[in-house]
Specification:
Pathway: Protein modification; protein glycosylation
Subcellular location: Endoplasmic reticulum; Membrane
Number of strands: 4
Strand content: under 5%
Distance between the termini: 117 Å
Main location: endoplasmic reticulum
Oligomer: single chain
Number of helices: 33
Pfam families: TMTC_DUF1736 (PF08409), TPR_11 (PF13414), TPR_16 (PF13432)
Structural class: mainly alpha
Keywords: Endoplasmic reticulum, Membrane, Repeat, TPR repeat, Transferase, Transmembrane, Transmembrane helix
Length: 758
């Protein structure tokens, strides 16, 4: 009984404290929305966020996933873990001139763990982790929005109170189902944004923990402030935007903890008012906490700068054309237009695209361009909100609007081109964190409308309709991110002027063997961007394979003229020139390619083929040896060395090279076949037979393998086995050169033996 009485008294005290906290204006008062206990609210948010993106779990590696994951050596066990701290997100050294300086070692570490646990590049595990992360973040949003919308209040037991349960649930649902988040969740590379957001929110919640009430009055914990700084640093090591949480924590401290009126503070600063001390700056330790945040942030940025170096990222005008414009007016106008488009994606996320560069958004070059209206609309809304945030007499309104604008703008600043050039025009993934601010403003606007509306249920149904539409849009967009073909084709209707979209559709078709359709899209990419050297290179390659050599040469020559250090185009130009029997030009093109890319095994291989055609055997062998040094698993180079040495009568050397190659690539059946031929000529029949049989087991439908094994048996005197393999070879390829003649010789010999035996 005593225990129950104690619990009842404690509950009464908590309820009394809750009623005291409710004396502030409350968003939930006029909101016609579902009221759920905190646990159930989080369960609902988790379930709905899961349903939005669940169909992406078995998607492929798409778009940037290839470079960041499949081709990233930092994921493999043989790469030392320490290298992750000196490489960028794509696995390049930060000191390299070609590095994008995207320093996200913790994100790469999670990819590496995924790779090791899966035992290879299996995308399911990567996708599942992304979905789980988004669900976790959406659940945390319930707590974050309850603080941002309802304020920070604690019970007498030190437990945080949710003063806006309905509003925080609505805002969390808006965040969970926003279609603009699809790129982050369904695209594996979006892991960087998800991890950054996770630690960003944990940093904010950790900072809030520093202000628990205790018996001695309102105080704060330095420990939790420092924990918040550390979590902010971890967020930044996942993605650059993470550092902005320290600034937002300071804004939250000033507005919510110290209840500072920004307009009043600005006026006092301008007039050098001596009453500043009474504004709460010193009394509640705000300056001390801001000093801790600023010191922590400065230390983090300094360490990052020391690791990364001072060199700027390497971007081109096709990545971000506005940033390369000569006119300051053009740059400013277009940057602001990009901001308006980002805002529109938050308001109406219907037209989504994996890439917004390369002509997708033509530059505004004159004030007569009708798109200026979008800028005017953006700034009209922003200025209106800022005026209300600063000048409203309602302190509750000032606080929510300022926090909403803060969470909308501050996390977006690293992507704004204001401090440094970024490598994109618009990137949906960078709106993941700013969408928090959008959800705050939307929910506050809904509460104001609910207050004025007579039929609140109709308004609630309209918002529910928006949520359902967003859920369906997320599911549709997630399905488009499951494969490159669907993803690239979905962009054709959104960005028909984007050369990269046409290039990627063409590349996807070419990879599937549909060269005719690929040519069409490559030509359109070159038409839209006449300087698109990668499209020229790929189109030139296809034309080369179709023996349209003169047009291929024109395209590749233009590509290297536009980008003189484009090594792949130089090599392909050399191949075309070799096919046109212009050997000196081909040799020069190959050496130019090697000059621009020192470690280029494929180019050395093709150079070796050129020298072999010119009967420069020693040069050919040296070129192929260079290819195998740079790439020990280069099967074609090893094979050509064995064949050339075999054809020139250097059987001992050919055998040595063949054995060396098989030690490095033990399961390569073409190498087994080449070495078996050499051993047969050296009369090492038993060993030759074993290699032939092993090669046939690996590739049973190769007519030449059966034909050459038959020749071995023919020489060896095993005529029945020779006959058997000649017949298999002719069945697989009736036109196999030499096989029919050898088979006829064998049959005549067998007939003669039968006559003698008779």
């Amino acid at each position: 009984q005593i225990f129950n009485q104690h619990n009842a008294e404690a509950l009464n005290l908590e309820q009394a404290f809750y009623r005291m906290a409710q004396t502030e204006p409350n968003l939930d008062h006029d909101v016609s929305w579902l009221l759920l206990p905190s646990y159930w609210a989080k369960m609902v948010v988790a379930l709905i966020s899961f349903l939005c993106f669940a169909n992406s779990y078995d998607g492929d590696f798409v778009f940037d996933d290839s470079e960041a994951i499949i081709n990233n050596k930092d994921l493999r066990a043989e790469t030392p873990l320490g290298d992750l701290w000196y490489h960028d997100f794509w696995g390049s050294k930060l000191s390299s001139n070609t590095s994008h300086k995207s320093y996200r070692p913790l994100t790469v570490l999670t990819f590496r763990i995924n790779y090791l646990f899966a035992g290879g590049f299996y995308p399911v595990g990567f996708h599942v982790i992304n979905i789980i992360l988004h669900c976790t973040i959406s659940v945390l949003m319930v707590d974050v929005f309850s603080i941002l919308l309802g304020g920070l209040q604690f019970s007498n037991k030190g437990r945080r109170l949710n003063l806006a349960p309905k509003s925080s649930l609505l805002a969390a649902l808006l965040f969970a189902v926003h279609p603009v988040h699809t790129e982050c969740v369904a695209g594996i590379v979006g892991r960087a944004d998800l991890l950054c957001a996770l630690f960003f929110l944990l940093s904010f919640l950790g900072y809030c923990k520093a202000f628990r009430e205790n018996k001695e009055g309102h105080t704060f914990s330095v420990f939790w402030v420092l924990v918040s700084v550390i979590l902010g640093a971890i967020a930044m090591l996942c993605k650059e935007q993470g550092i902005t949480i320290l600034g937002l924590n300071a804004v939250f401290d000033a507005l919510v903890i110290n209840k500072i009126n920004l307009l009043d503070l600005i006026q006092k600063l301008l007039h050098k008012d001596k009453s500043l001390e009474n504004a709460g700056l010193l009394r509640k330790g705000l300056l001390f906490r801001i000093t801790l945040l600023m010191s922590g942030g400065a230390s983090i940025l300094y360490i990052r700068w020391r690791i990364m170096g001072t060199g700027p990222p390497a971007f081109t005008d096709v990545d971000n054309p506005a940033s390369f414009a000569d006119s300051l007016f053009v740059r400013v106008i277009n940057y602001n237009y990009y901001y308006s488009l980002n805002a529109w994606l938050l308001l109406c996320p219907w037209w989504l695209c994996f890439d917004w560069s390369m002509g997708c958004i033509p530059l505004i070059k004159s004030v007569s361009d009708w798109r200026i209206i979008a800028l005017a609309a953006l700034w009209f809304c922003l200025i209106g909100l800022i005026c209300q945030a600063l000048c409203s007499e309602d302190s509750h309104k000032r606080r929510i609007l300022t926090l909403g604008l803060g969470f909308l703008i501050i996390p977006f600043l690293p992507a704004s081109n204001l401090f440094f050039r970024v490598g994109f025009v618009i990137a949906e993934r960078v709106i993941y964190l700013p969408s928090i601010g959008y959800c705050i403003l939307f929910t506050y606007g809904f509460s104001l409308l609910s207050k004025q509306a007579k039929k609140k249920k109709i308004l609630a149904v309209a918002v529910l309709g928006i949520l359902l539409i967003n859920v369906m849009r997320c599911a549709l967009r997630s399905s488009q991110w499951r494969s490159e073909e669907q993803l690239f084709r979905s962009a054709l209707s959104v960005c028909p002027l984007n050369a990269k979209v046409h290039y990627n559709v063409g590349k996807n078709l070419a990879d599937k063997g549909n060269q005719s359709a690929a040519i069409k899209y490559y030509r359109e990419a070159v038409r839209l961007n006449p300087k698109y050297v990668h499209a020229m290179n790929n189109l030139g390659n296809i034309l080369k394979e179709r023996n349209e050599l003169h047009e291929a040469e024109e395209l590749l020559s233009l590509a290297v003229q536009i980008q003189p250090d484009f090594a792949a185009a130089w090599m392909n130009l050399g191949i075309v020139q070799n096919s046109l029997r212009r050997f000196e030009e081909a040799e020069q093109s190959y050496w130019t390619a090697i000059k621009h890319r020192k470690k280029y095994p494929d180019c050395y291989y093709n150079l070796g083929r050129l020298y072999a055609d010119l009967n420069r055997h020693i040069d050919a062998l040296n070129a192929w040896r260079n290819a195998t040094v740079l790439k020990p698993e280069h099967s074609l180079a090893w094979n050509n060395m064995i064949i050339l040495l075999d054809n020139t009568g250097n059987l001992a050397q050919a055998e040595a090279v063949g054995r060396e190659a098989l030690e490095l690539i033990p399961n390569d059946h073409s190498l087994m076949f080449s070495l078996a031929n050499v051993l047969g000529k050296s009369q090492k029949y038993k060993e030759s037979e074993a290699l032939f049989l092993k090669a046939i087991k690996a590739n049973p439908n190769a007519a030449s393998y059966h034909g050459n094994l038959a020749v071995l048996y023919h020489r060896w005197g095993n005529l029945d086995l020779a006959k058997k393999h000649y017949e298999v070879s002719l069945k697989l390829d009736p036109m196999a050169p030499g096989t029919k003649e050898n088979y006829n010789l064998l049959r005549r010999k067998l007939e003669q033996l039968q006559k003698k035996g008779g």
